[in-house]
UniProtKB/TrEMBL annotation, chain B:
UniProt main location, coarse: membrane
Sequence ranges assigned to domain ABC transmembrane type-1 in this UniProt record: 150-344
Compartment annotation: Cell membrane
Transmembrane segments: 21-40, 60-78, 157-177, 197-215, 222-239, 259-277, 284-302, 322-340
Species this protein is from: Devosia salina
Classification of source organism: Bacteria, Pseudomonadati, Pseudomonadota, Alphaproteobacteria, Hyphomicrobiales
Keyword terms: Cell membrane, Membrane, Transmembrane, Transmembrane helix, Transport
Protein name as it appears in the record: ABC transporter permease
Family membership noted in the UniProt record: Belongs to the binding-protein-dependent transport system permease family.
Length: 443, 357
């Protein structure tokens, strides 16, 4: 618990009673840990954590101020700030995790995919599985006049973009958005629609969707319930992709600068605890998350992905030590290049209807992602001896090195978003926009 | 008079008195749902058990049989339905979860005590450092337990019911007294009566959020939203029954009132209300039943604290204990609904008695 020393050093808080929202997913862990291990209290914060019904309710809660902050999809602060969906300036001083998602298909679809998979010597499918194996299934659905429906959790969710990335890399068009038609199903081969994360298994079971992209534990839950088979994790779609962020309104940050730093400090400590000593604390974290007020799923389901493994087809357990990363690889630092990637995907699929110059991507990223706040919090933690100097990328420009560790091998350089958009196989390119149900070139 | 001759007579009298007392309380006991106590009391008071057996069979044995058959059928059929969360839990698992929820409650209270202990210690340290200005008292931030959720639901339905009564009774009296008013109100009643809480909720949420800006600690916005939704769905039975009760007052009484030139206020308090009360209470009882039923749906959809939220959260958790916990909630909702109805019925009985007296 709090030492007297840390109390003496405590920040002068503008607001110390806070309510944070979260969705029942394992990547909300830093919040639960910061609460249960007393890190919030160490900073003098009295935090109440409240599960939210879906991402829309959660975002509205933060915007209207009924929530002070929340566990958010990385795309949410960006989309809100540029006015896609809702208009509100939301910022983030803290990136919550890397990876942690998967794509699951129903048992029936899996059976249809199997003949198109490459098998290894033991008769197990070779991973990562390309969406090319799904293509004949979708064509079979089409021949029967049935739509192929997939679930994702929110129009600007990581899962929407990951699912689209995977489908497009396998030659399947997931459909476009346009200002007139925000269903995201224009010219689609597969129809993506929104389902809140915890309802994914039930919706799949009811047959409304044939597969989904969602965070844990809802892919492993499908395996345990024997209703579906995870085919790929987001680690295989984009190695160490940034995922959730902690979002606050810009007004809150402006009115409560010290409180913001205190929150960030507590969250950084929680992330560190989650990854400490080669994930030694993960078993304890699983116990905390399995409580009904947090994720609430059975501990063994949560543990399936939280402790370094991932179960694909029942019995096919594979090691994915980095499936959930909370602290390693500077996971908590809010990189501008992470923000830019999400913006490129919004442009790629038509959520951003018109071309924007590279400088615009940089400006938006800088107005939403706040490494300055992060570094201030980290500096205090280093001074208090709670984290190591080497844990923080002090001199980063905010842009990660270009990487090609995607399932399709395309190189992403956050400083050249337009060139990146043009290099992707399916999607809008520079000078293109969606008109009616067609992609047309700008005059 | 000798003691010997008086003793049997007085014990006979005492027995007689006892039976009168039992018979008098019988109406009350049955109003409370404890009617089966009457034959038991009579046997205890020395009545012939055989005479009371028939009564006892009807009021105690058959109901217990019904419950037993239900529990046995539940226990044997439930395990045969396999869901993706495992078999449907039987009575044993549900009982287990009831105990677990109680343990949860105790554990949470313990955490609360620790929280305050830490706060006390911290404040003591601050005082010791001569920083008494920095001393803060903050409320516990933990999750609401199952019992907390029940209390929240009761509070919400109480508030909703109160607003419904305040709105419905005056409207009902007005439309009972005045045919034109009744004519004007009736189409609206017919139109809005069948509307589901799920349809009201979005409108109520927007309107309450717009009007109730400075929410107080004791009356959070979420509670008001649920309560107003309950009001909108539950005020109709009270309104209709009040109107009916008022309209069917004895015409002679009304004429007497006119002859005495009573003021409207006096007419309502001295004539209208007393004779319409039994029907008003019938309406209130129906309203409360509807309100309680509607509340759970409203809480589930709006994610407002209470039993509805508990059910929804458990559904989302999808753990192996979730179904059993939801069944605990279903039984709780049923039992509380039954008790609320009994309370209203008792009140109604009380007022009906006074009406007859």
């Amino acid at each position: 618990m709090a030492s007297t020393a840390s109390w003496a050093a405590m920040l002068d808080l503008e607001k110390d009673e806070l309510k944070f929202g979260f969705i029942k997913l394992t990547d909300m862990a830093p919040l639960a840990v910061a609460y249960e291990l007393g890190y919030f209290e160490d900073e003098g914060l009295y935090v109440t954590l409240e599960p939210q019904a879906n991402w829309k309710v959660l975002l509205d809660g933060v915007i209207t101020g009924s929530l002070d902050g929340a566990h958010m999809l990385a795309g949410q602060p960006l989309a809100a700030t540029i006015g896609y969906g809702t208009k509100a300036h939301i910022v983030t001083p803290f990136s919550m995790d890397l990876n942690g998602n998967g794509i699951t298909v129903s048992n029936a679809v899996w059976e249809l995919m199997k003949p198109h998979l490459e098998m290894d010597a033991e008769g197990k499918p070779v991973h990562p599985i390309s969406a090319a194996a799904l293509k004949p299934v979708i064509e079979a659905f089409e021949a029967e006049g049935k739509p192929f429906n997939l679930g994702m959790v929110f129009p600007v969710s990581t899962h929407n973009y990951e699912l689209r990335y995977w489908l497009a890399a396998g030659g399947i068009n997931p459909g476009y958005y346009s200002p007139e038609d925000v269903s995201g199903q224009i010219a689609a081969d597969a129809y993506l629609s929104v389902t809140p994360p915890p309802q994914m298994p039930a919706t799949l079971e009811a047959g409304t969707i044939d597969g989904y992209a969602v965070g844990e534990p809802w892919n492993q839950a499908a395996v345990f319930k024997k209703i579906g088979v995870p085919v790929i994790t987001d680690y295989d779609i984009w190695k160490n992709n940034p995922e959730k962020v902690f979002g606050l309104t810009a007004e809150f940050v402006e009115a409560n600068p010290n409180t913001t730093i205190a929150i960030t400090k507590a969250l950084i400590r929680a992330a560190k605890w989650l990854d400490e000593n080669d994930n030694a604390n993960r078993a304890e974290a699983v116990e905390i998350l399995s409580r009904s007020e947090y994720v609430g799923a059975d501990a063994n389901v949560i543990a399936a992905s939280m402790t370094g493994t991932f179960e694909f087809e029942a019995g096919d357990v594979r090691d994915v030590p980095d499936f959930n990363v909370f602290y390693r690889y500077y996971a908590t630092y809010p990189y501008y290049s992470d923000a830019v990637w999400y913006l490129t995907q919004m442009r790629r699929w038509g959520q951003i209807a018109e071309d924007q110059p590279d400088s615009w991507y940089d400006e938006v990223a800088r107005s939403v992602y706040r490494p300055d706040l992060y570094l201030e919090a980290a500096r205090q933690l280093v001074d208090e001896g709670l984290i190591e100097e080497a844990d923080v990328p002090w001199d980063s420009s905010g842009y990660r090195e270009p990487t090609a560790e995607f399932i399709d091998g395309v190189t992403y350089d956050g400083t050249k978003p337009n060139a990146y958009i043009d290099s992707l196989p399916v999607g809008l390119k520079t000078g293109e926009r969606v008109e009616g149900s067609e992609v047309v070139a700008n005059q | 008079m000798t003691l010997a001759s008086e003793a049997p007579a007085s014990s006979g009298q005492r027995r007689q008195k006892l039976f009168t007392a039992i018979n008098r309380s019988a109406a009350w006991l049955s109003a409370l749902g404890l009617g089966w106590l009457v034959p038991l009391l009579k046997i205890a008071a020395g009545d012939d058990p055989r005479e009371q057996m028939g009564e006892l069979r009807d009021s105690l044995f058959f109901p217990l049989m019904g419950i037993a058959v239900f529990v046995i059928a539940w226990a044997s059929l439930a395990p045969q339905v396999q869901t993706s969360l495992g078999a449907i839990p039987g009575p044993a698992q549900v009982w287990e979860q009831t105990a677990a929820l109680w343990q949860d409650h105790l554990a949470e209270r313990e955490k609360e005590a620790e929280f305050y202990a830490r706060q006390d210690q911290r404040n003591a340290e601050l005082v010791a450092e001569n920083r008494a200005d920095d001393v803060k008292w903050r409320a516990y931030t933990g999750k609401p337990t199952y019992l907390d959720q029940i209390l929240t639901s009761l509070k919400t339905v109480g508030l909703g019911f109160l607003i419904a009564t305040i709105v419905a009774v005056p409207l009902g009296i007005a439309s009972g007294l005045s045919r034109p008013f009744n004519g004007a109100l009736n189409p609206l009643v017919q139109l809005f009566k069948p509307v589901s809480p799920l349809a009201w909720l979005p409108i109520v949420t927007m309107v309450v959020s717009a009007l109730y800006v400075d929410a107080s600690e004791a009356l959070p916005k979420a509670l008001v939203i649920s309560a107003v939704t309950v009001t909108l769905c539950s005020l109709w039975p009270t309104l209709i029954n009040t109107a009916l009760g008022v309209a069917s007052i004895d015409k002679d009484l009304v004429n007497v009132g006119k002859v005495l030139q009573l003021s409207t206020a006096t007419t309502i308090t001295k004539l209208v209300l007393p004779s319409a009360l039994p029907l008003i209470f019938t309406g209130l009882r129906l309203s409360l039943g509807v309100g309680w039923m509607v509340l759970i749906a409203a809480e589930m959809l709006a994610q407002n604290p209470g039993l509805g939220k508990f059910v929804w959260d458990e559904f989302q958790n999808g753990s192996s204990t979730s179904l059993a916990r939801i069944i605990v909630a279903v039984l709780t909702i049923g039992i509380i609904g039954f008790l609320l109805d009994r309370v209203m019925f008792t009140l109604q009985t009380a007022f009906t008695f006074s009406g007859k007296r």
